[in-house]
Every structure is written in structure tokens, then in C-alpha cells.
Design a protein that fits this description.
single chain, 296 residues, alpha+beta, Rossmann fold, Tumour Suppressor Smad4, six-stranded antiparallel beta sheet, 17 strands, NAD+ kinase activity, ATP-NAD_kinase_N, NADP
């Protein structure tokens, strides 16, 4: 029986001109394998017009209009989040090639691309399923994608004074946050905005969410870890009568009186991992845990 060629959709960062050699390696590798390659339109325009790369793609797509076996994200974690938002409930596994700096999600280095694809074709990769959360606006309208792989944050606008966020978990009152904002993070996003605001690192298998305040007015307010099956209800008051909702960094303005309900989504995001990758070793490497920073 003849095996059908694998299909790949490629997303990339149009602002990394000096790093386009990696995509050429990937395109050459996939062409040798007889793979069908589809490239996101903005990235295709960047590669062909700005970088003058001959991209032999089976097609170019916009937004969510692709049906493939795997997605390749070429960039940092921001590009990965963009790809994940486009994948949505499709269930397509994503391979993240790190063209940025830190790279918790995009963790395949440019020099490891061919080895990673070898492992993929040999069936030696692992597929991790990561929780997605969603937000609904009661009394308001969310114009964009309501799903987040990393986090959903409620934030004050610009130089406005702090906001008040009345928070309930599964219908039970938790606290009225007086702060610049509140982050609801998944375990995947715990090493992102959550971590920079003093929130805990949560291992992916823990089935947990965390509520982390941003610059709270009271020093005795601390992050709270809850089960990822919980429903979180937020009622926001602001002197400016509006606030921001940031969904994996995509911000929307909401008016006061709009109730937000955050819960786990019905779908997950699948991430391709190499079998030799371990979460704690990634933490030590990326965050330099255990490194002696004292002068010698």
C-alpha cells in the first residue's frame, strides 16, 4: 500500500530577515520527502518578495483555511501562539522552531530542525496535549478569537488608575482584587506573563490554572492555584468605565459592566516534542536554575 505524503502548514515571523536560512533547510528537507507544503500568506509574501526565496509550495492559505498533518511554527513563542490560535480545534500537532530568544513553546533550535523532522518521520516524537482556556463576555462582545493557550488577562487601560475585579470560582466569591490587572494562566503559560508577575511555575501535567494579580494594591494578595475544571467569573469596575482583555497577548477593549466567564475549552493544542526533551531540564536551561551567578 502506497503511503500518502505528509502535509505541512508553515507559519513564520516576517520580521526575522537574518534567520531565513532555516526555512530554506526545512523547505529543501520536506521537498526531498515529497511532502505537500502550504505556507501562510503573509509569511509566503515575506519569503518570496523580501527574501527572494523560491518557495515550492502546494498552496498558500489565509487564517484558518488549511487541512494538514502537521503545522510548523518558525519564530518565537509569539509566532507559536499565533499558529496555535489558527489551529484551534483542528487537533493538528504543532512543531515549534525557535527563531526567537527564550522559546518555551518553540523549543526546536534552528540547528536541530533536520534531526527533529527525521524523528517525526521515524515516528519517534511525542505528542503532548496542552489545555486551552476560553473567555465569554456576558453583556458585551468579543470580536476576536476567545481561546488562549497561555493566558487571559484583565488589565487597566494605559495610564488609568487601578481596577477592581470581583472574582468568583465555581460560583463562590474568592476576593475583590484591587490591582492593575489579573492573569488567568494555564500551566503552559505559567512561564510567561504569569512568571514575570511573581506567579508560580506549573508543570504541564498538573491540570491546574493560576490566578495571578498584576501589581495588587494589597501586599497580602498572592497567586492562587485552582483546578482547571473550575469556572472563573470576573466583574470589573474602573474609573474610566472600560478595561482591556488580553487573550494570549491579543488585546480588546471592554466596557464596565461586561461580565467575563473563563473556563477550560473543549479542545486542546497538541505540541510535538522530541523524546529526549524533559520539562525540568528545559527549566534549568531556559531559566538558568541552579546556576551560580556570584562572582568568582
Amino acid at each position: 500500500m502506497t503511503r500518502q505524503p505528509l502535509k505541512f502548514a508553515i507559519f513564520g515571523n516576517e520580521y526575522q530577515a537574518k534567520k531565513s536560512t532555516s526555512i530554506e533547510k526545512i523547505l529543501d528537507y520536506l521537498a526531498q520527502k515529497g511532502a505537500e507544503i502550504y505556507v501562510e500568506n503573509a509569511y509566503y509574501e515575506f519569503l518570496t518578495r523580501s527574501q527572494h526565496i523560491d518557495v515550492k509550495a502546494a498552496g498558500v492559505f489565509e487564517d484558518y483555511n488549511f487541512d494538514v498533518d502537521y503545522v510548523i511554527s518558525m519564530g518565537g513563542d509569539g509566532t507559536f501562539l499565533k499558529a496555535a490560535s489558527r489551529v484551534g480545534a483542528k487537533g493538528t500537532p504543532i512543531i515549534g522552531v525557535n527563531m526567537g530568544r527564550l522559546g518555551f513553546l518553540a523549543d526546536v533550535l534552528p540547528g536541530e530542525v533536520e534531526a527533529a523532522l527525521d524523528s517525526l518521520y521515524a515516528g519517534e516524537c511525542q505528542i503532548e496535549e496542552h489545555v486551552v482556556i476560553q473567555v465569554e463576555a456576558e453583556g458585551g462582545v468579543l470580536a476576536g478569537n476567545p481561546f488562549a493557550l497561555n493566558d487571559i488577562a484583565v488589565l487597566k487601560r494605559d495610564d488609568a488608575s487601578m481596577i477592581s475585579i470581583r472574582t468568583q470560582v465555581d460560583g463562590e466569591f474568592l476576593v475583590n482584587y484591587q490591582a492593575d490587572g489579573l492573569i488567568v494562566t494555564t500551566s503552559t503559560g505559567s512561564t510567561a506573563y504569569n512568571l514575570s508577575n511573581g506567579g508560580p511555575i506549573i508543570i504541564p501535567q498538573s491540570s491546574s490554572l493560576c490566578l495571578t494579580p498584576v501589581a495588587p494594591h494589597s501586599l497580602n494578595i498572592r497567586p492562587v492555584v485552582i483546578n482547571d475544571t473550575a469556572e472563573i467569573t470576573l466583574d470589573v469596575e474602573s474609573r474610566s468605565h472600560n478595561y482591556l482583555v488580553a487573550i494570549d497577548g491579543r488585546s480588546e477593549r471592554m466596557t464596565e459592566g461586561t461580565r467575563l466567564v473563563i473556563r477550560k475549552a473543549a479542545h486542546t493544542i497538541k505540541i510535538v516534542k522530541q523524546r529526549n526533551q524533559r520539562y525540568f531540564s528545559t527549566l534549568r536551561e531556559k531559566l538558568m536554575w541552579g546556576a551560580d551567578q556570584r562572582g568568582r
